[in-house]
Amino acid sequence: MRLTRPISTAQQVYEWLHGCVLRGDLPPGARLSESEIAQQVGLSRQPVREAFIRLAADGLAEVLPQRGTYIGRISTSAILSARLIREAVEADLARMVARARPDLSALQAQIEAQDHAHAAGDVPAFIQADDLFHRAMAEAAGHPAVWSDLERLKAQMNRLRHMAMRHFDRAETIAQHRAILAALLAGDADAAEAATRAHLRQMLTELPQIAAAYPEYFTT
Amino acid sequence: MRLTRPISTAQQVYEWLHGCVLRGDLPPGARLSESEIAQQVGLSRQPVREAFIRLAADGLAEVLPQRGTYIGRISTSAILSARLIREAVEADLARMVARARPDLSALQAQIEAQDHAHAAGDVPAFIQADDLFHRAMAEAAGHPAVWSDLERLKAQMNRLRHMAMRHFDRAETIAQHRAILAALLAGDADAAEAATRAHLRQMLTELPQIAAAYPEYFTT
DNA sequence: TACGGCATACTTCCATACAAGTCAAGGCGC
DNA sequence: GCGCCTTGACTTGTATGGAAGTATGCCGTA
Fold first, then answer.
1. CA-to-CA distance for B173 and B163, rounded, in angstroms?
2. Is the pLDDT at A76 greater than 70, yes or no?
3. Whether A201 contacts chain B with CB within 8 A
4. B84, A89: Cβ pair inside 8 Å?
5. Distances (CA, A) of A190 to A90, A186, A193, B197
6. Which residues have Cβ atoms closer than 7 angstroms to strand C?
7. Could you say which residues from 73 to 92 on chain B have a Cβ atom under 8 Å away from some Cβ of chain A?
8. Does the ipTM surpass 0.95?
9. A198-204 mean pLDDT
10. Which of B49, B54, B81 sits opposite A145 (nearest CB)?
11. Taking the domain B9-72, which CATH number applies?
């Protein structure tokens, strides 16, 4: 029995497209074609088609029978729902961490990484460090799986974040992370929850501006 | 342009299998076969295969290349993560509803429906009413989309619930719903949150017993 | 009896062909 | 010029055949 299974080509196509959508390389509303992509990657339509199906299952694409496949637009209401879920979950996680007071060096490390990325203008590194900060908090709370359970919701928010990086200076984001970490280190559950909620509510002010700047990328 | 698109056969196969898995009709660990299912429903392997891919994307099945497709076992850690997320989210929703004090007749109606289903021993109706109660709370909070965003997590919990229905009397569940509704009607946010969290923590005591009763259906 | 090697029947994966529906452009009639 | 219809080039959906890999049972051998 093999332990490391060979990755199927359909899987590779899926991962490639998935990354393109999240990075904004394939913008919302873009039209896809099974045969066109198949020709690009030198495969038949079938594996590409299966990648499309998985993208649609992720809520990142929409397959219209006999009409075409399109990259899904960003639903502002879906973003607001996802944000609400994240706020509720991370608020609870913050309380747990503040009470348990585990080792938090991982969070400190991600803040520093984010500082460097911000200074260097390295957008992918900044986003990765941001992700890892929140993931580290879930791990510190003893529930690492929670973070991956929210993968589907984060995908939508990641697309938004790539756009936001072009319009907002993220120095404030780092300051908010520092505030969260300070409250966690102090073991102050109330302050940690408040700082976390305030951080995630930042999106409420940014979302309308991004949606106004790229109206063709959004739906209600 | 058609507004009501005809449902593809692959979609129908997916929905059928999805229902079978959630109802426990296809138990965890069960082996599936593209050709076997295709023969049963009178189709070729392709639509069945695509249904398998979607099931795997939902975390309900596992496709092992050249080896077979199996209904996923229920991960106790995944259930605990999903439960934690639901508790955090519904606690926040309960606070919102308690503060906004909207019309709550929908919640009352679902409690009564659940009462009838419990008395009649109608398991599917009971589960449906349970779902609708929580969904109604999300709607009352003004965020109906939140409930559907958690669909993927609820799928795992629904499988568990079908097993739990055979081992636990659900009268207590209804009483907990009544307690939540009473707190909401009183506009007491703290009490509503506490009642909601207590209700969802019920699973923490039931899960180990179910997992012990059906060890072959669970993994860590 | 115990064990190793092989044949065989499975599985999923990919390629190809065809079917059915959609959309747009162009020609025709008015 | 304007409107309607037809035609054709697309799209995704389904069926089928073969390729590659896996597991299993059987048989021969020690």
1. 15
2. yes
3. no
4. yes
5. 13, 11, 5, 18
6. A 8-10, 43-47, 50, 65-67; B 1-2, 5-6, 32-36, 45-46, 49, 52, 63-69
7. 77-78, 80-82, 84-85, 87-89, 91-92
8. no
9. 96
10. B81
11. 1.10.10.10
The HSE-up count of residue A176 (CA atoms within 13 Å, CB side) is 19
Residue type, A157: M
pLDDT digits (tens, 9 = 90+) for A15-38: 999 999 999 999 999 999 999 999
User: pLDDT by residue (tens digit) across A139-182?
Assistant: 999 999 999 999 999 999 999 999 998 888 889 999 999 999 99
B163 confidence band (pLDDT: 50, 70, 90): very high
| Interchain CB contact of A54 with B (< 8 Å) | yes
Q: What is the pLDDT of residue A63?
A: 97
Q: Which CATH number fits domain A75-219: 3.40.50.1440, 1.10.10.10, 1.20.120.530, 3.40.50.1010?
A: 1.20.120.530
The C-alpha angle with vertex B212 and arms to B206 and B216, in degrees rounded to 5, equals 125
> What is the tens place of the pLDDT at every residue in B61-92?
999 999 999 999 999 999 999 999 999 999 99
Contact present, A202 and A83 (Cβ < 8 Å)? no
Q: Phi/psi of residue A206, each to 5°? A: -80, -35
> Considering only alpha carbons, which residue of chain B is nearest residue A8?
B65
Q: What is the pLDDT of residue B169?
A: 85
- Domain boundaries of chain B, sorted by first residue: 9-72, 75-219
Spatial separation of the C-alpha atoms in residues B145 and B147, rounded to whole Å: 5
Q: pLDDT tier at A66 (50, 70, 90 boundaries)?
A: very high
Same fold? A9-72, A75-219: no
Residues 6 or more apart whose CB falls under 8 angstroms from that of A113 comprise A125, A129, A132
What's the CA gap between B29 and B71, in Å, rounded? 5
- Residues of chain A with C-beta less than 8 angstroms from the C-beta of B34: none
Query: Within 10 A of B16 (CB to CB), how many other CB atoms are there?
Result: 14
